[in-house]
Amino acid sequence: MSGLHHVTAIAGDPIRNFGFYTRDLGLRFVKKTVNFDDPGTYHFYYGDETGRPGTILTFFPWAGASPGRRGVGETHQTAFRVPQRSLGYWTQRFTEKGIAYEALEKRFGESVLPFTDPDGMALALVGVPGAENEPGWSNGDVPAEHAIRGFHGVTLLLDSAVKTAAVLTDVFGFKETGREGSVIRFKAPGDAEGSVVDIYEAKGFLRGHQGGGSVHHIAFRAVDDAEQGKMAQKLVSNHGLHPTEQRDRNYFRSVYFREPGGVLFEIATDIPGFAVDEPVATLGRDLKLPSFLEQHRKQIEGVLPNLEETVS
């Protein structure tokens, strides 16, 4: 299995972020933890019922973060998949909730509903025929039949697609499947969650800079450590890139590298998953810390803002 594992973005107010993704979008709050490199801040994980790879959107919510600017060398848009027939439901919901959205459009023959989150992050819902047959998780408000089914994919805004395309195809197994204007579509085998990467070639555009509403990095799937190691070796031998050493993120193991267009990529293992430290039934309820931070739990809990509610 290949495709996206997760997308990690930057938010401002953590309570606002939590409310939007759990209540307004109806995603499950899969994990409440901290940024391992900055434990005074949360790291939120949202996804489907069990937090399967390809459904996970994560955030570093830094209160007071200045807004980012979309531009070259950044992720331009993150798209979720929903049943084709659910786009009308979501248009009405966005109107009722006062969520900023744009007119429905067509891309590569698919219906796309662009919208933004409270920090200005560019998002979209893509109507996928047959998605109604995939399991949907309900938060008690968004009906399961209309629920988000994970990622459709991401759009990268780059000066040139050539070298990034070589990484996508050689290392991650994507194939070019179409072109529309300045956008080139790449797909992973099958039609699973997170199987699409679009590259929007925009040579000469302003470079972006990260802040609230920006994607921090994109993670691609590796089944296990061995596959991850093979991918990392290809990056070195075939593309002259230099991935980091493996880092243990408790729920997956990661290596990172800056792809040729400037976007930070990660290779994350499917294992061990989000149920490694709490049962699926209570995912996201309690603050989970890695073992090396457990001794500092009281101090950490003392500086983290209280969420208005927790979701089980």
CATH superfamily: 2,3-Dihydroxybiphenyl 1,2-Dioxygenase, domain 1
Average pLDDT works out at: 95
Radius of gyration: 18 Å
The CATH architecture can be given as Roll
The residue ranges in which pLDDT falls below 50 over 5 or more consecutive positions are none
Percent of residues in helices: 10-25%
So what's the oligomer here?
A: single chain
**Largest sheet, described in full?**
8 strands, mixed
The dominant shape is globular
Which class of secondary structure composition applies to the elements?
Answer: alpha+beta
Strand content is 25-35%
Number of strands: 16
Count of separate DSSP helical elements? 5
Determine the N-to-C terminus distance. 28 Å
What is the strand arrangement across the widest sheet? Answer: 2-3-4-1-13-16-15-14
**Count of discrete structural domains:** 1
CATH class descriptor: Alpha Beta
Q: In sequence order, what are the helices and strands, one letter per element? A: EHEEEEHEEEEHEEEEHEEEH
Looking at the structure, the CATH topology is: 2,3-Dihydroxybiphenyl 1,2-Dioxygenase, domain 1
Gist of the model:
This protein has one domain: 2,3-Dihydroxybiphenyl 1,2-Dioxygenase, domain 1 (Roll), CATH 3.10.180.
Task: Provide a descriptive summary of the structure in words.
- The protein is 17% helix and 34% strand.
- It has an eight-stranded mixed β-sheet with strand order 2-3-4-1-13-16-15-14.
- The chain has one domain (4-303): 2,3-Dihydroxybiphenyl 1,2-Dioxygenase, domain 1.
- The protein has five helices and 16 strands.
